[in-house]
Amino acid sequence: GAVVSQHPSRVICKSGTSVKIECRSLDFQATTMFWYRQFPKQSLMLMATSNEGSKATYEQGVEKDKFLINHASLTLSTLTVTSAHPEDSSFYICSAMDFPPNTEAFFGQGTRLTVV
Amino acid sequence: RKEVEQDPGPFNVPEGATVAFNCTYSNSASQSFFWYRQDCRKEPKLLMSVYSSGNEDGRFTAQLNRASQYISLLIRDSKLSDSATYLCVVNIKGSNDYKLSFGAGTTVTVRA
Predict the structure, then answer these.
(1) β-strand pairing of A10-13 with A111-115
(2) CA A109, CA B105: separation in Å to the nearest integer?
(3) Which helix (H) or strand (E) holds B37?
(4) DSSP one-letter code for B81
(5) Does B3 contact A at CB distance below 8 Å?
(6) Cβ distance A13 to A20 under 8 Å?
(7) DSSP code of B11?
(8) How many angstroms away from the CA of A109 is the closest CA of chain B?
């Protein structure tokens, strides 16, 4: 099946620094990519939807200036957590779709971010 | 009201038992439906798509009821390896794009 690669899988950073997470579709062109956040024992929460070549659509309550999303090509989307704080510590997962509406979404392996 | 709601469980069942649970969705523009499985600290993985006529994959059976806006998942002859959180996922069509909405997950624990 299609593969989505997410990197890094784990990162620890200091408060105030920025962290970039990459999400790549390895064998298909992802017109749409999604970024989710999952806190312990909670469900996946959609943060934003990005379409290649256009601005991301952020969910209510998600600060677009803090969580910068770039989807510059059909195979790569990046999420940058700027000026990270301990409360940003979470599990971040990307997923990618090629041709909606019936296709499944393929998920990256997730990135566990710890801000100290 | 949440777009997708699931019974969180947990469902604790013995090996060999049958377990079933539902998921309701609120948006009638929902286009497609899926069950994903998520193991602890891992990414979700597709278990099965859900088709209007209902579909079966081995010990797993999924049903869709568009009139009542719910989908269901039934697991027969439960195995220890079925212990996981099962996520109901709905693909909703917006004006210009599609969005996947997730339920909070139903936790299933199969005991020996």
Answers:
(1) parallel
(2) 18
(3) strand B30-38
(4) G
(5) no
(6) no
(7) E
(8) 5
Q: How far is B111 from chain A (nearest CA, A)?
A: 20
List all residues 6 or more positions away from B84 whose beta carbon is below 8 Å from its beta carbon. Answer: B37, B38, B39, B107, B108
Kindly list the distances between the CA atom of residue B29 and the CA atoms of A39, A105, B12, B92, B104, in Å, as whole numbers in the listed order.
28, 18, 34, 6, 20
Per 3-state DSSP, what percentage of chain B is helix, strand, and coil (rounded to 5)?
5, 60, 40
For chain B, report the end-to-end CA distance as a whole number of angstroms. 37
In chain A, what residues touch B44 (CB-CB under 8 Å)?
44, 93, 107
| pLDDT digits 0-9 by tens, B56-69 | 999 999 999 999 99
Q: How many residues does chain B have?
A: 112
How far apart CA A58 and CA B108 sit, in angstroms, is 32
Q: Is the pLDDT of residue B95 over 70?
A: no
Q: Model confidence at A19, in pLDDT bands (50, 70, 90)?
A: very high
For A50, name the nearest residue in chain B, comparing CA atoms only. B97
**3-state helix/strand/coil string of chain A:** CCCEEEECCEEEECCCCCEEEEEEECCCCCCEEEEEEECCCCCCEEEEEEECCCCCEECCCCCCCCEEEEEEECCEEEEEECCCCHHHCEEEEEEEECCCCCCCCEECCCEEEEEC
